């Protein structure tokens, strides 16, 4: 009888101890979850999100199919190139017609970092010219050991072209959006005296970009008029579609595109 009584007491004690442990684990887990949900996103978190969204291969194919008279099927390609001492991310960016992806007509460096605290924005995205653009063609498509080294990349950052200030949004699809100042930045291509840029970062790494050039009288001399280019992440099999007729430009370009996403007719 004594043995049986002691066993029951031990069993009850173990049950109470196990219950206390489980209760403690639930409380700890709840506290950690609450902390994670309420943790504020830092300025560098915003910059990281934008940099990651700008990365990768994206196409404007869907837009070109919807409106072939005004939009081309362009390939957007970007990848990490270097980190600055202050933590800014440097990305290499190039743009080409989808049918000739290895012949980019536009090459830039993006520099992504948090906005200065005195500015009313979250992320600053600046574009820079490349000192020797020919050396960087197809940078992202090359094996890493065949790319310029990060220190070489930093040394090849040339003229500052534009800066866009992005703000975090509360929309269901759009995460960040912003533009250059209203008076834009100097630009002399195709008769322009200044240019403006609008950029939006959406979910699923979709990017909307709208670059336009204006003359002294405020007339738009390059860039599409109807709205931004919509770049969506390319499917893994996108290269298989290179000979699809929809991949070809539906209208003559006339001259090499340098400062815009598309030349006005």
TrEMBL record:
**Key words of the record:** Lyase
Q: Give a GO molecular function annotation for the protein.
A: lyase activity
Q: Which domain of life is it from?
A: Eukaryota
Range of residues in the leader sequence: none
Q: Which PANTHER family match?
A: CHROMOPHORE LYASE CRL, CHLOROPLASTIC (PTHR35137:SF1)
- What family does this chain come from, according to its entry? Belongs to the CpcT/CpeT biliprotein lyase family.
Q: What is this protein called?
A: Chromophore lyase CRL, chloroplastic
Q: Taxonomic classification, please?
A: Eukaryota, Viridiplantae, Streptophyta, Embryophyta, Tracheophyta
């Amino acid at each position: 009888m004594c043995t049986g009584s002691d066993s029951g007491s031990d069993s009850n004690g173990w049950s109470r101890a196990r219950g206390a442990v489980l209760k403690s684990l639930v409380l700890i887990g709840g506290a950690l979850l609450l902390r994670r949900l309420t943790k504020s996103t830092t300025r560098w978190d915003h910059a990281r999100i934008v940099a990651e969204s700008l990365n990768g291969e994206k196409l404007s194919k869907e837009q070109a199919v919807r409106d072939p008279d005004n939009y081309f099927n362009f390939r957007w390609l970007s990848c990490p190139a270097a980190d600055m001492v202050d933590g800014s991310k440097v990305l290499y960016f190039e743009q080409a017609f989808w049918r000739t992806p290895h012949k980019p007509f536009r090459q830039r460096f993006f520099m992504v970092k948090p906005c200065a605290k005195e500015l009313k924005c979250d992320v600053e995205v600046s574009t820079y010219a490349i000192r020797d653009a020919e050396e960087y063609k197809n940078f992202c498509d090359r094996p890493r050991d065949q790319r310029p080294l990060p220190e070489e990349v930093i040394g090849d950052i040339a003229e500052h072209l534009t800066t866009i200030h992005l703000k975090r949004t509360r929309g269901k699809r759009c995460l960040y959006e912003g533009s250059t100042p209203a008076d834009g930045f100097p630009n002399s291509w195709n008769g322009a005296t200044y240019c403006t840029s609008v950029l939006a970062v959406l979910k699923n790494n979709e990017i909307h970009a709208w670059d336009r050039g204006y003359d002294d009288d405020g007339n738009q001399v390059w860039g599409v008029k109807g709205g931004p280019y919509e770049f969506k992440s390319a499917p893994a099999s996108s290269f298989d579609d290179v000979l699809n007729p929809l991949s070809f430009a539906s209208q003559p370009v006339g001259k090499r595109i340098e400062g815009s996403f598309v030349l006005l007719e």
